[in-house]
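dumping these here so i dont lose them again. two proteins, back to back, each one seq then structure tokens. dont judge the mess
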Amino acid sequence: MNNNQIPLSQLPMGKKARVAALTSDGSARRRMLDLGIIDGTEIEPLYKSPSGNPVAYLIRGAVIALRSDVSEKIIVSNGESLWD
């Protein structure tokens, strides 16, 4: 992971980023791929539950809730200054 890459769980609310890598394997990786979470996919955190877990993300036009244990295994990149 380089300087402009962070786990999705650390992406600030309302900031967009692109998927750089998936660090999970097995059925968890398959589920993410089935949801359309592949390299280059734009993701934006929209809402956080009152307890902070899960968080709703906008992914390919759909709002999908992910727990922090899942979102920390999705590495995102700001690429071209998607967040400042």
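---- next one ----
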Amino acid sequence: MRIFLIVWIGQFISLLGSKLSEFALALWAYQQVGSTTQVAVLVVLLYLPNILISPFAGSLIDRCNRRWAMIFSDSLSGVCSIVALLLTVTGQLQLWHIYLGVPILSIAGAFQAPAYAAAIAQLVPRKHYGRANGMTEIPLAVSRILTPLLAALLLGIIKLQGVLLIDCLTFLTALVTLSIVRFPKLQTSQTLKNSSVQQLGKEAIASWRYIRARAPLFRLWLFIIATYFTIGMFDIAFWLLVLKFGSATQFGIVISAAGCGMLAGSMAMSAWGRPRRRVLGILKLTAFQGIVVIGLGLGVKLSLAVASLGAFLYLFADPIIMGANRAIWQQQIPQELQGRVFAVLLMFQRGAMIPAYLITGLLVDRVFEPLFATHPFWQNSLGKLLGNEPGTGICLFLMLLGVAKLLLSAFAAQDALLRTAERPMHDLDAVARVNSPSGL
């Protein structure tokens, strides 16, 4: 655990700096163009390259020491920060620089996330997988709480160049911590020396087949993909609803409450380790989130306290669900394959978010909001419960989304194969098959 703790501290500090600069640059970009659409394009650029390159990045991660994969990722992000700092100091920073840098950061993330997830299995005893995964969520939660407040404060005091300088210094912290530790060596196949694009593609396909061939893990994977899809829908709908019925200050309070919930859940996972039965814990907490979402649909427009409590409870469950899921995969997948398998998993999980964002916007704007604005039937039926003012359609959407999460959990709980996903798997030839020259 000692090596993991050193790495974790460096990544924690580096992530805080990165989130500060990301928020500050996004705010700067919005101030330059004043367009939400342009910011949305930046979000797509942050996701899309990551999704496209992840399968190839995963195979490359398994070819080298995962410490070096993390060093490469952190260094690439650090170079972007240094270039942005120099452009800002010289007064030459332009919007197209941001559009060029965001995809590079996305590519760096395609290496960092699976390498970090796979490294946990190398550095941490099996019994502590859950705790370690909980700890990796803590920096995200802390940054969610502090970033908006700190970035706005620092921009007023030390300007954009000061924030970027902080990011560069925190990046150095991550490199120093990674440079003073050594990861245990993994035994890899000689065929991994072939790093052609064709071979990497074959291995990515083989990773998919590896997951597909293990019915319990595959069904757990499908459930998590569906969960990520509902998370994307919730993110868009809930924040739109809060903005409809609250001021900017109230919106900030709800964001802080959500961050506190995520931090509390991460700390609980770090101390607790895991639910006694991870799969059932995942299903029960997802159902719990469904109940919370239904409550938010009913209560956000009535009370800021309801919105804050609901955001806290929803995000409290999230790191426990995701930490328990990662622990199952770390336990079941041979360490030699975890880089590419995690890369494939992350590719589909992140990929599920983009259509969720797009679909939610279309459903809210063109279906649910017009229901209460133009249809007397809905105004005279559900309108009596929810009201007929703008935003009521989003309330209905959230309630239906909560019901969908409850049904998803209930159906998954009836799947006998899914419930066995955390049981030990004995597949001694798996590594040989995936590492074969054909990738199969």
